UniProtKB/TrEMBL annotation:
Transmembrane segments: none annotated. It comes from the Bacteria. SMART domains: GAF (SM00065), PAS (SM00091). SUPFAM superfamilies: GAF domain-like, PYP-like sensor domain (PAS domain). Signal peptide: none annotated. This is GAF domain-containing protein. Gene3D superfamilies: 3.30.450.270, 3.30.450.40, PAS domain.
């Protein structure tokens, strides 16, 4: 077994998901000619679902199987779908005197048209009304949540009730594309993933990218026999057909094993996209096979969209509150600065200090050959050495880290560990800085299974498997401080401008 953390970009990230030439068997995939809608390729399960063998359908226009009186309408729909966004329509399919209805989704490509057919599960008007009432109800409930956490938890609970899935998770990506479960609702006998972090390679980059092209990924039953498209090679492009946008696309083996290891049979995930970035996922699990209707999937899409908008608003609100608070601290600090005899005193002494503004454990000001300190800081000699390192290598604007020892190993030996550092250069070449320190915050990260074993390599060096345990694996993170928030960095920059302005006025 080899251990390595670069699976996301290297191994898992290079599995080609779209050129597999295989689909899941819960629908039929058709590749149509752009001009006359003749069937160029079709999945081999056509016989099962459409009651006409795949070979027989090849080369025929799709309309040959649509009742006469519907021809015009269906042809117009297929031709006109280009502008619409994957909205399914009902397709009547007539073979051997028997008519079946299918939900059809048209996915126009450059050189051909993809059509996905799934057996229609038409809903009653009454059902629709209840669906609508439910969506309204959930939306209202979500609005009452105060924090992001609360919103995520409430959503999980309501979404579980609404969809009937055994488990619903709200999963938020971190800056390294690991993900943390921030909301969970589940059947009692299922594993508890609340608060756990999962490594980036669990949802590798190309899988994440596909969420910008598809509103969900549905795997109704991991125990399926994949179905081939025939002919294997697309006759127009002379290549495998790109299945990126299809729902039916067959699932990567490593992920099917993953689902088995999680002891689930069905899975459906939907993206939470905020400001054009993949913020997180809704992940739904079911112990047995589960095949939600198109209508339910559409409603799930809608609710996830509503959640995304509310999360965005909630986050903005939280940032705004912090900004307002920092703004008022800044104003107080400025008053002090302009009334005190020297600027170090203005920053470090008095009712409000830079420690309050930037949530520091200690601070130092080095100016005109003197050094003043406040709170928990490294000792005089250590600060002197740190300043000369900064003067040599960190003169280009503010330097911010939440793990100083990673950049400057010497600092590991400080008596008062200063794991976080923010510098506000006054005159960096002269070694004049304001330094803000944050103490070490030893953190325990609870992983969903050991991330170092995310991939189990076989001795042949080629075959591999996902990890088979999602038991909590505790990692202790040392030598780092609490992270710096965007708003705090803005406050530091604002403070820096104000300081420079004041010092300029004094000098000239
Ligand atoms: C796909 N992995 C996925 C998907 C999810 C996860 C949600 C999308 C498909 C789906 O909805 O089932 C991961 N699901 C999670 C996580 C949780 C969850 C983290 O519920 C947390 C609770 N996977 C591995 C390794 C590799 C890998 C080692 O563990 C690579 C070598 C790959 N995962 C992988 C691939 C896909 C995937 C390739 C895409 C599968 C597909 O769409 O065909």
């Amino acid at each position: 077994i080899t251990i390595n953390k670069s699976y996301d970009s290297e191994m898992c990230g290079s599995i080609p998901l779209h050129l597999v030439n295989l689909v899941q068997p819960h629908g039929v995939l058709l590749v149509l000619d752009k001009t006359d809608f003749r069937i160029l390729q079709i999945s081999e399960n056509a016989g099962d679902l459409l009651s006409v063998p795949a070979e027989e359908l090849l080369g025929q226009p799709l309309s040959a199987y649509v009742p006469q009186e519907k021809h015009e309408e269906i042809v117009a729909k297929i031709a006109g779908q280009a502008s619409q966004d994957k909205i399914p329509f009902t397709l009547p399919f007539l073979a051997q005197g028997i008519q079946k209805t299918f939900d059809a989704v048209v996915l126009p490509q450059d050189d051909y048209i993809l059509v996905e057919l799934e057996e229609n599960t038409a809903i009653e008007t009454e059902h629709f009304a209840s669906l609508y009432r439910h969506i309204k109800y959930v939306t209202t409930l979500l609005k009452q949540s105060v924090t992001v956490q609360e919103l995520a938890q409430r959503f999980s609970e309501e979404f579980k009730k609404f969809t009937g899935f055994d488990k619903v998770l709200v999963y938020q990506f971190d800056t390294q594309w690991n993900g943390i479960v921030i909301g969970q609702a589940k059947e009692a006998d299922m594993d508890d993933y609340m608060g756990l972090r999962f490594p980036a390679s669990d949802v590798p980059k190309q899988a994440r990218d596909l969420y910008f092209r598809n509103p969900y990924r549905l795997i109704p039953n991991r125990n399926y026999t994949p179905v081939r498209l025939i002919p294997v090679i697309n006759p127009v492009t002379q290549r495998f057909t790109d299945l990126s946008e299809t729902n039916l696309r067959s699932v990567a083996n490593v992920h099917l094993e993953y689902l088995a290891n999680m002891k689930i049979t069905a899975s459906m995930s939907l993206p939470i996209i905020i400001e054009d970035k993949l913020w997180g996922l809704i992940s739904c699990h079911h112990k047995t096979a589960k095949y939600p209707s198109y209508e339910l999937r559409a409603a799930m899409e809608l609710l996830t969209g509503i959640l995304s908008v509310q999360l965005e608003a909630k986050q903005k609100e939280e940032h705004m509150e912090l900004r307002v608070e920092l703004r008022s601290l800044h104003v107080k600090l400025m008053e002090q600065l302009y009334t005190s005899s020297n600027f170090a005193e203005g920053l470090l002494e008095g009712e409000t200090t830079i420690l309050d503004l930037l949530s520091l454990s200690g601070a130092a000001v080095s100016y005109e050959g003197n050094t003043w300190t406040k709170g928990i800081t490294p000792d005089a000699q250590e600060i002197k050495e740190l300043l000369s390192w900064l003067r040599r290598s960190k003169t280009g604007g503010m330097y911010i880290t939440n793990s100083l020892p990673a950049d400057y190993p010497h600092s590991k030996d400080y008596k008062n560990v200063a794991s976080g550092l923010i510098t506000i250069p006054i005159n960096a070449e002269q070694g004049e800085f304001v330094l803000g320190f944050r103490s070490e915050l030893i953190q325990t990260v609870n992983w969903g299974g050991d991330p170092n074993n995310a991939i189990q390599m076989e001795p042949d060096g080629k075959s591999y498997h996902p990890r088979n345990s999602f038991q909590i694996y505790k990692e202790t993170v040392k030598n780092s401080s609490a992270p710096w928030q965007q708003e705090e960095l803005i406050a530091a920059e604002t403070l820096r401008n104000a300081l420079l302005e004041k010092l300029l006025k004094e000098r000239y």
